[in-house]
Amino acid sequence: MKPPLVYFCKLVVFPVVNIFIKKIEGRENIPQKNSFVVASNHINGRDHLFIARFLKNRLEDLRFIGALDSLKILLFSGLLYYLSNTLIVNRKRPDRKNILKKAIKCLKEGRVIIIYPEGDTNSGPSLLKGKTGVAELAIRTKVPVVPVGMRVKGFFGREIRIGKPLYFLKEAKLLEEIENNKKEYNLLLRKTTDRIMKEISKLCNKPYPYEN
Questions:
Q1: Confidence of residue 79 (pLDDT cuts 50, 70, 90)
Q2: Does residue 89 fall inside a structural domain?
Q3: Is 209 within a domain?
Q4: For residue 122, which of 152, 84, 96, 91 has the smallest C-alpha distance?
Q5: Quick one: DSSP state of residue 12?
Q6: Which H or E element spans position 203?
Q7: Position 117 in a domain
Q8: What SS3 state is found at 67?
Q9: What is the count of structural domains for the chain?
Q10: Which range marks the domain in which residue 146 is found?
């Protein structure tokens, strides 16, 4: 995040957000230094505020991955995306290689990437099938993934559960052997993604009906 947004969040936004946080579990699972990826279920646009709140000590390092593929998003979120240094994805014309390159660069610089593997907001009873970008990012950088589950409680209220960091060192080693085998590579990404989604499922108490 850029400094103006960091100060605004600490002085104005977070005192309001605190009112709606009913419970936060697992703060001890948040790495205190170095890079990591936060992977959370995605209820609605307010998720960003709650995630930023429990990562308030790393605000300058936060990098969200967000969609910017419509005039509506541009009008309502364009300035916020700029101030938060959001890594932008155009879902209509996805450039997976480019966004992955940018995210890897951020992690190498010691940043924290926030990603919603469902790929879209989802207030339904079950999780959506996870996109494999989170797995590819974790395997290629060897940084831990911190799974997060959020639940709505009351009017705008949230319960937040933070899981233990997941490491994929074995998968990273396997990647070196199968990277040129597209079928095996995609299978590795799928299995890794489903493992992450399974942990998110436990934390938010929403079933994930796609795991292998």
A1: confident
A2: yes
A3: no
A4: 152
A5: I
A6: helix 182-204
A7: yes
A8: strand
A9: 1
A10: 3-204
pLDDT tens sequence across 132-160: 999 999 999 999 999 999 999 887 899 99
What pLDDT score was predicted for residue 163? 97
User: 134 by DSSP, 3-state: which?
Assistant: helix
Return the DSSP state at 2: -
Q: Which two tokens stand for residue 80?
A: 């916020």
Note whether residue 212 is domain-resident.
no
Task: Give, in degrees to the nearest 5, the angle at Cα 117 between 85 and 139.
Answer: 85
pLDDT digits (tens, 9 = 90+) for 24-61: 999 999 998 899 999 999 998 889 999 999 999 999 99
Contact 117, 47 (CB under 8 A): no
| Residue 146 CA: distances (Å) to CA of 29, 70, 74, 108, 196 | 8, 30, 29, 17, 9
CB 12 within 8 A of CB 91: no
Q: Do the strands 112-115 and 145-153 form a parallel or antiparallel pair, or are they unpaired?
A: unpaired
